[in-house]
Amino acid sequence: MAATATLLWWLLGAVLFPAWLIAGGVDYLCHARTDIEHTSGRHESLLHLLQLVEIAVPLLVFLFLAIDALALLFLLGGVVAHTLSAWRDLRYTTHRRNITPAEQVVHGVLLVLPWMALALVAVLHWPVVEALLDPAVASDWRLHVRDPMFPPAVVIAVLAASVLFGVLPALWEFARTAAAQSSSSNARSATKPR
Predict the structure, then answer these.
(1) How many domains does the chain have?
(2) 3-state secondary structure (DSSP) of residue 9
(3) pLDDT tens digit at each of 194 positions of the chain
(4) Range of the domain at 157
């Protein structure tokens, strides 16, 4: 049983998390290649920032808090919100920017991996899930600091990778789309008759 749990932890941290970051990087490149600045623009980029926050909150909860009933519901809420925002993003973008088959595959990966991660967390913390599903068992509805904490090297690696491959590209994309929109607005106002 301990060997299976170890394998599941490795699957979560060494496979799913890096795969999600790589897929996010490929998605960023797809946006740049299809000229997000001049097509779907700042609105789509804002939706990407929203999705980033919706995944960042559960990631931080997972890293720093014990997985009890409330923490597990935070994770579930973040994954559901991320999925709904991704749907909204695609609904908005589909008629404004070419979404290539490669980008569609990447979107599928970005949608599925958070659900897979949530499923692994649930399996690794199965007594919490059982307590949530059984009204006869009292669940703990308070947030607690994780004890023991993950090793500092793991926390630093996860946060650094998240910033480097998730936060910075999303902020750079937003800066590019905002600058393009501002430049476009200035050009339109300069050509208006006085």
Answers:
(1) 1
(2) helix
(3) 788 989 999 999 999 999 999 999 999 999 999 999 999 999 999 999 999 999 999 999 999 999 999 999 999 999 999 999 999 999 999 999 999 999 999 999 999 999 999 999 999 999 999 888 887 777 778 899 999 999 999 999 999 999 999 999 999 999 999 999 887 666 565 556 55
(4) 41-171
